[in-house]
Design goal:
- The chain is α+β, with helices and mostly antiparallel strands and about 130 residues long.
- About 20% of the residues lie in helices and about 35% in strands.
- The protein has 5 helices and 9 strands.
């Protein structure tokens, strides 16, 4: 199970990477493994306002439908359109080509409060 040390994590199994005030969000390797084969991703709309803990989309797999939660508050500034035609990128490259969206934030306080890789590993018993 991959848990890159340079990312932050939510208890809901999203990973987060900040570049200045733009935060990229995706689901973790743990989450994609639990979901199974992803067949559809419902992406948020660019310009949508999201609140930390609120739903920003859904992932449909052969096993279930799961919500994607925003680990930070802000405005959706980009979405990964590649997921529309290739939702399996969430399985094959959860920390790379399988990112879901980017959110522009006004502060990194919520980002800084997220779990470290070590804390996330403890949460998932890895």
């Amino acid at each position: 199970m991959q848990i890159p040390a340079d990312l932050k994590y939510s208890p809901d199994h999203e990973w987060v990477k900040a570049t200045e005030l733009v935060v990229r969000i995706g689901i973790t390797d743990y989450a994609q493994d639990a979901l199974g084969d992803v067949v559809f991703v419902d992406l948020p709309k660019i310009g949508a306002t999201v609140n930390a803990g609120g739903q920003v989309g859904e992932v449909e797999s052969t096993k279930s439908v799961s919500e994607i939660y925003a680990p930070v508050s802000g405005t959706v500034s980009a979405v990964n359109e590649a997921l529309n035609g290739s939702p399996e990128l969430l399985n094959s490259s959860p920390y790379g080509e399988g990112w879901i969206c980017e959110v522009t934030v006004t502060s990194l306080d919520e980002f800084n409060a997220l779990l470290s890789a070590e804390a996330y590993a403890q949460l998932t018993n890895n």
